[in-house]
Structure prediction request, 800 residues.
Amino acid sequence: MAKKKKTTTKTASKTKKKNGIVSFFKSKQTHLVFGIFLALFGIFLLVSFLSFFNTWKADQSQLHLFSDRLAETKNLLGKIGANISHFFIYKGFGISAFIIPFLMFFSGLYILFNISFKAMRTAWFWGVVFMIWLSVAVGFFFPKKALLSGVIGFELNDYLIDFIGKIGIFLILLFTALAYVISKFKVTPESLKANLPKRITKNSKSVGIDDITDEGYIAETIPEKPLSELELKVTTKKADPVQKQEPKIVVKEEVKVTPNKLEVTPTVHEEVKIEVEKTFEEDHLVESLSNKLVDDFGEFDPTLELSEFKFPSLDLLKDYGNENITIDQEELEANKDKIVETLNNYKIGIANIKATIGPTVTLYEIVPEAGVRISKIKNLEDDIALSLAALGIRIVAPIPGKGTIGIEVPNKNSTIVSMKSVLSTQKFQTSKMELPLALGKTISNETFVIDLAKMPHLLMAGATGQGKSVGLNAVLTSLLYKKHPAEVKFVLVDPKKVELTLFNKIERHYLAKLPDSEDAIITDTTKVIHTLNSLCIEMDNRYDMLKDAYVRNIKEYNVKFKTRKLNPENGHAFLPYIVLVIDEFADLIMTAGKEVETPIARLAQLARAVGIHLIVATQRPSVNVITGIIKANFPVRVAFRVTSKIDSRTILDAQGADQLIGKGDMLISTGNEVTRLQCAFVDTPEVDRITDFIGSQRAYASAHLLPEYIGEESGTGIDIDMSDRDELFEDACHVIVNAQQGSASLLQRKLKLGYNRAGRIIDQLEAAGIVGKFEGSKARQVLVADILALEQLLKDEKGL
Ligand SMILES: Nc1ncnc2c1ncn2[C@@H]1O[C@H](COP(=O)(O)OP(=O)(O)OP(=O)(O)O)[C@@H](O)[C@H]1O
Prediction:
């Protein structure tokens, strides 16, 4: 412990030191002093270099006597000047070395006036390149005057001659110079061409002007017009062969005669080059640390730990043969006739009828004759269904937003909507949703993709064998195909014990579990209660983190974290979405009642902003299972076929789910509208292949660990020895009393403790009477009003 403390203080002092150094280099005064120094040093160099050319001969013999005070040099800047100049000019670059004092001087000015560092860097780069080029060039043209090219220029020439000869060097020099000019002045073959004919046209201009002056009046009215404009008129008159050859310059001229004067408005359509002025690049003095971190390390990539993770490919999914909807014209006609006949029996005339064929049902859209009341048709729903003698008829009167009446009639041969066919759609593949779910296809055969993050929770109901489990698998598969293990974690609750077992294989990739549990998939009711409470703690922790980061939801939080604006040392971390899937909710409610309902309701009410989403499926959508509070917090509900109208109302607040045909035929209510879908079908072997594929890849060390939840039983009857107190006990007292919130997670974050130790301290705090009793997932009550009272209490304790 002491060691840990020591290292923390050590790192603290280290960071302090580091901060001091950083602020020294960032201070304006440092910049000023350094800028002045560089500028003056530039002048110093220039003077010594200039002086060097007169004095080098005399000073040369003195160079080695640098330390001898009596040795005299002629350089204006003494021995140091003579030595530096000797180094840069004689041993270095010859006259090209003059570039260095200028670079120094301007660098000083750059720093003084806080001009961008980038500009300075570019200047140095090109300065040095030019210096080398020039010293080689001088060495080439004046091989006998080694002083002008310096040793470097001379030696480089000498070296290059052996390899490419004199002509080679000349060509290299020429090439590099041309390459520079071309790139600097953006020379293009077009601009070269364009420049060439200009000169030619210029010649023709002189001819033109003579012509015009011959005419006399033009010269008089527009004497100050530039030559080019005057000439233009002539070119329109004469067919100038030169101009014809050069189509690049298109010249048009309008001559307007006004009562008083003759106006010439020439329009020259020439390839005009635009020169973009460099805008002033401001340097920000307080460079934010996060920007620097992002510059240095790039954005934080949560997927880095499993960067080689491969998403499952679509090949793992099965093709189902009869996926193309076949239109049975006879069936269509027969159904149409039946509908028309039935409605006529009830004296409802039809103006128009249209059919849309979906995978399982066909929608007949009817426009009734004028004057027919829609409510009349709605009331006759059962009778019409009976007359059509088919299971699964649903009447939508009116179709929202259309004013027509829809009658959905099941197809004789239904088509399976394979998971592959929905996942391969562009709609899903290119979806930008946070948690996209490809649930199936609509009646118009359009893939239905919905964002779980926006829902924010999903309630699924349906009688046994109608497709709930397949629906859950479709949901999970959608997420597995779209989200990296770092981005989403599943908490799977499967009281039936068999439905979700396959997902065990991806435990260390995608599942989350309680720290002390062996299996990630939860099948036992007590563990479900613990897990739900643990999720509530996770939710509270996440809210605290969001609060600390001044953001409102997980998306903003993660963006901030990725851009390195949140320090992991302060307890921040990238937050994956957590999707809680409960396969059989009715069972849980029956066995655990309020203990399950309370945390579920709490999560459903609050967890959306922190990225915890619930998917709850139930066989029995009765009111004692889907209570009002749960229903209110699950705006998006899916109904597979249910057995009674009442069940349909309970789940959807509307009829219809009892009229479905089963086998994945479902209705989804998104709050304001109910859509009929054919759920995508994913079979167990397909899920098996996907989980195998993922499970065989490198995984995290363990499943994602949820916060530890200490059940009620361990929070009571605390009898703790005072001398056994944690050494951070007093610090913890202060944290808790200051925040007036008795939660272990607060201690964890503020004192950087593990959960167990924080939990122990909370127990000690309870024993000391500082916090109240355990209250489920809520924070404990703090019994000490303020720090003063706390100090008093601690003093009294010590006095005893
Ligand atoms: N989307 C679908 N497309 C085609 N057939 C389906 C679809 N969904 C389910 N089925 C068929 O219905 C059967 C039962 O589905 P499922 O196991 O999902 O029912 P369930 O509602 O979960 O039942 P239980 O509540 O008893 O577990 C499947 O084996 C399959 O044959």
